[in-house]
Specification:
alpha/beta; eight-stranded mixed β-sheet
């Protein structure tokens, strides 16, 4: 396990690092997740193995610190990640990022372009989301005020999430989980989609084939973003169908 101090208060981002050659690959998890649990299997898949790979946990999540004085905006997450990657000697990395992590990766590429050479976005959030009490994911968490969430709303979120997601969500700081969800639903200005469309680096969006066409696919393709449907999976593509995920990701990284 490696780490870097990323805030003035001394808070650390931590990651698991796999040795290898070629461009560094950085794997970034989604809301309430952790990169080692979600990406370890695919990072060592024969189609993806052999590169230096950092399986990074964002602040507030997994094995990283959980400061309560951090605002957990997408920009703050991206800037903290930039500090960690710079500490690790990373530049021109290939980012493979899931869900909220995809949003953070887009903001990272926009704010710190020297750090990112390619983006593979795994069913990532590109647009603001409307909070809705009782919904799964960021929408349901953001429907609570922070105090309501801390006072017991997190228990209702836990029960909706189920044991699989809760197994990593329980590692997240509760303030971190709520603030990250809230700012994910609010998005950025310009939006994550708009930032993605403006980039010139190779970009790929992976999405579950069962979800049907991705919103705005034509505009994404027109801007040079590859859009690939992955069969036999849900939102957690890398866990549901690791072989097809590895195939699609390897194609995106070599195309």
């Amino acid at each position: 396990m490696r780490s870097a101090i990323v805030t003035p208060g001394g808070d650390r981002i931590r990651w698991v690092e796999l040795a290898g050659e070629g461009p560094t690959r950085v794997y970034v998890h989604g809301l309430g997740a952790t990169s080692p649990a979600y990406f370890a299997e695919v990072a060592v898949h024969p189609l993806l193995a052999g590169h230096r790979s950092l399986l990074v946990d964002l602040l507030g999540h997994g094995i990283s610190d959980r400061p309560t004085d951090f605002d957990y905006t997408l920009e703050a997450h991206a800037d903290a990640l930039a500090v960690a990657l710079t500490h690790a000697g990373v530049a021109d990395a290939e980012l493979i990022a899931h869900s909220m992590g995809g949003s953070v990766a887009i903001v990272l590429g926009a704010r710190h372009p020297r750090l990112v050479s390619r983006l593979v976005l795994v069913d990532a959030n590109l647009d603001p989301i409307t909070p809705a009490l009782g919904a799964l994911g960021s929408s349901g968490i953001a429907a609570y005020s922070e105090q309501e969430f801390l006072d017991g709303g997190w228990k209702r979120v836990r029960d909706l999430a189920g044991s699989h997601w809760w197994s990593t969500m329980r590692l997240a700081g509760r303030e971190a989980l709520h603030r990250s969800a809230l700012h994910l639903t609010r998005g950025t200005t310009p939006t994550m989609r708009e930032l993605l469309l403006r980039m010139s680096i190779p970009r790929t969006c992976l999405f579950p084939a069962a979800d049907g066409p991705i919103r705005g696919a034509e505009a994404l393709a027109a801007a040079g973003v590859s859009v690939l449907a992955v069969p036999d999976c849900g939102h957690n593509i890398m866990l549901d169908n690791p072989n097809e995920f590895a195939r699609a990701t390897a194609a995106a990284l070599t195309g």
